[in-house]
Amino acid sequence: MLRSLAAVVLVLGLVGFQMTTAWNGDKLDLLERVLKEEVEESKKSGDSTNLPIVGKITWQSSTLGAYSSDKAVDGSSSSNLYPSQHCSHTITAARDPWWMVDLGSNHCISKVRILNRGDCCSERLEGAVVRVGPSVTGTENWACGSPVTAAQAAPSGGTIEFTCYPALKGRYVSVDIPGSATLQLCEVTLEEIPLSQCPVPQPFNVVGKTAEQSTTHGAGYTADLAVDGSSSAILYPARHCSHTVTNSNHPW
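The line above is the sequence of Fucolectin-like; the predicted structure tokens follow.
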């Protein structure tokens, strides 16, 4: 990049030195080549570019009235649910609501932006998680960035940005809110880097890491048994599985 900038300065210096003469084709060609190389170098470095998703196939866990999932990728910048109807909306207080878009093929997603509702109830987006990956079941894919905080959800009509670090390879991008919630999205936009530059996810060893759960069933089925390294799927009598009290909320 420094070499390219130096070349640009050199060309401009030559031009300034010869102001009394017309530019010849060689100087124009040189400047054009330098600028083209700069663009190509930027692409190779993994800079994000917009990924058009307007009109892509979408679906969601439930739909309130006319506010279908495709409203979140209709290209509108309106953040008003009513009467413009440019936002998607699940039924109110649904269990684990989610929304998903099918990109049609794998892409390397670097950023996701959500335009929050502007005419009411922006706080509903608190806790939302963005995921990217190969599975049509969104919760099986990797999380991009962190869940939406109360401060991020508070501004009416605000745009919330999720940075996938590292960038994530996948065909499906989803948004979900764990628990009882209402999911409303007025527009979702994406950025990507070249697929050839996408990092490969590496397994992470969690055996022996600190684990907690909301409740524990009996005396032996503690949270740490879920990260004890055992491949046993038998709860009893092996005791290699964690177990909460039945019907616990947010169990592990």
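Note on the example: The two ends are 48 Å apart (CA to CA). Helices lie at 2-17, 25-44, 150-153.
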